[in-house]
Amino acid sequence: MRITDLRATTVTVPLEAPLRHSNGAHWGRFVRTIVEVDTDEGITGLGEMGGGGQGAALAFAGLRPYLLGHDPFALEELRFKIANPTASLYNNRTQLLAAIEFACLDIVGKALGTPVYNLLGGKVRDRVPFASYLFFRYADAASGIGEVRTPDQLVEHALALKAAHGFTTHKLKGGVYPPAYELECYRALAAALPGDRFRHDPNCALSVEEAIRFGRAIEDLDNDYYEDPTWGLNGMRRVREAVRIPLATNTVVVNPEQLATNLRDPAVDTILLDTTFWGGIRACVKAANVCETFQQSVAVHSSGELGIQLATMLHLGAVLPALTLAADAHYHHLTDDVLTGGKLAYAGGSIAVPEGPGLGVTLDRDRLERYAELYRELGDYPYDRDPGRPDWYPLVPNERWADPGQ
Q1: pLDDT below 50 — which residues of the chain?
Q2: Ranges for the Mandelate racemase/muconate lactonizing enzyme C-terminal domain (predicted)?
Q3: Is 171 part of the annotated catalytic residue set?
């Protein structure tokens, strides 16, 4: 079997409301690039990639000559063709590789008539549990609803998500408002949901000293972990020494070299495996196997997915024996998807692992074209800017907090 073509379509899919974070916002929609890889046996594989509010179709077009004639089963060869580690100093293609690997695994699974999880060693669970990824949100521009700014609004939103989807783990994306205000919000969340588990993610916005103060102020809560409170391995190491909560990261341990450094001189307790950031599902499985050997916990990270990438997260979560923590997903904030049948369904705080061959999901051509047209109409958005503060940009560590009264 050989690859005969590569096609990339950028889409934008609306969110319920704009999501705020330490670096800016998702401006009421996700921009994602859907990849289709064709073969000479008539099998097409699906991949997906984000771009921080920007499309990536041209980047994939540039890789077409690398892929024509390639055997989709030859995934290790593909890794070095696309993302040779020394060449990547000049042309970092890790996330591009991930999307193409998704598509190749989809092809291989379809060719063999088996789900991707069987290509990764076989599943150990049928469903993957998820956390209720909570954001401070602007109101939707059209409806005027959806704002999450106050502690009461945050609690109301979390309770509604729990009622709708069954979440028992709740993660708050912070780094937006002054730390004292976010502490009030986080503690209100924990008080309103007794018996559930919690995570706070300041998104690297805090100084080491502020991160220590905040972490000590939440030590009494039922925390899974404290995610990326500050930037850098050494900063995280200093926080870890001073706070009695496991630390997690998706920013400073995102490749094998950083994982080795962290195992040798621990700064982080839980590694958040992102199928895009690590360069594919297989890279995440490799990292998880190392973590299992060293008894370092892992969880599945979200980088703002539609259903194709969500499927990669589900297949990853299905095969990790040591996965004891709920996965992250932005998915419930979406109003629709590009999949046949629309969005995959939550039940009991979890989503079923797809059972069809390959990734087990199919594209809805009408939806794909509808959201491609919406992208052509609206274009990109600057992920690292805030629509409510047009002249603002963050420092690291940050001290330019949003006003909780606005």
Answers
A1: none
A2: 151-246
A3: no
